[in-house]
Amino acid sequence: MKERTGSTASRRRVLDGIAGGALLTLAGCLGGGAGGGEGSIAPISLDGERACDQCGMIVRDHPGPVGQIHFADDEPEGGRPAQFCSSVCTYTYRFDAEDGGRDALATFLTDYSSVDQEVFEEGSDVTFSSHVESSAFARTTELTVVAGSDVVGSMGPDLIPFGEAADVETFVTEHGGEPLDAEAVDRGTLEGL
């Protein structure tokens, strides 16, 4: 996939900064508390011995996309966001949590448009490198995932996320699959993998 150019990354940072400043100003005008709002939520690094909240595997030890979810109910996962070793684990946990009445404020997945990924072939399996640093994540509202490609994640067939349309096209040409807005993923999408 191609790297973002400096001007695209710089433009995005400027726009993110303006949007962040506007949200902080609005929160101040509305009397928002120290906790901030949905716009102030940022991804964390998933390094170290962090275990997936869905399946228990150590996140950094496995290939493919990883994820995290920040919840409105003061994150009962021990004061941290829920963390996951795959896109499938991320969505499965979110759907179960929402069915249980929890409110997911922000869901983040690896953005393969923003990292220099490595591709590994082992037998008939193709995997992408895992990236656990906070800068590797993007909100699902900004991502397109590819379902049904020949690239697998830590749990087998996975949804491979990208922030740039050109990277999605290149990936589909090389690895197959169907692009889907990351916010349109539902249980049926996961069952179809």
Please report the distance between the alpha carbons of the first and last residues.
23 Å
- As for the number of domains, it is 2
Report Rg. 17 Å
Strand order of the largest sheet: 2-1-3-6
Helix share, percent: 25-40%
Query: How are helices and strands ordered from N to C?
Result: HEEHEEEEEEEEHEH
Q: Categorize the overall geometry.
A: globular
DSSP, total strands: 11
- Number of H/I helices: 4
Outline the low-pLDDT stretches: 2-36
Q: What does the average pLDDT come to?
A: 84
Descriptive terms for the model:
single chain; 11 strands; 2 domains; N2O_reductase_NosL; 193 residues; alpha+beta
Set out the fold topology.
Layout: H1 6-29, E1 67-71, E2 82-84, H2 87-99, E3 104-110, E4 119-122, E5 125-128, E6 137-139, E7 144-147, E8 151-153, E9 156-157, E10 160-162, H3 165-175, E11 178-181, H4 187-191
Parallel strand pairs: 5-8
Antiparallel strand pairs: 1-2, 1-3, 3-6, 4-5, 7-10, 7-11, 8-9
Organism: Halorubrum glutamatedens
Pfam family, one: NosL
Protein name: Nitrous oxide reductase accessory protein NosL
Describe this entry's structure for a reader.
- It is a single chain.
- With about 190 residues, the chain is α+β, with helices and mostly antiparallel strands.
- It folds into two domains: about 1-40, no CATH class; about 40-190, no CATH class.
- It has four helices and eleven strands.
- A four-stranded antiparallel beta sheet has the order 2-1-3-6, covered by helices on one side. A four-stranded mixed beta sheet has the order 4-5-8-9, with no helix packed on it. The chain has a three-stranded antiparallel beta sheet with strand order 10-7-11, with helices on one face.
- It is globular, with a radius of gyration of 17 Å.
- The protein starts with 5 loop residues before the first helix and ends with a helix.
- Residues about 1-35 have low confidence and may be disordered.
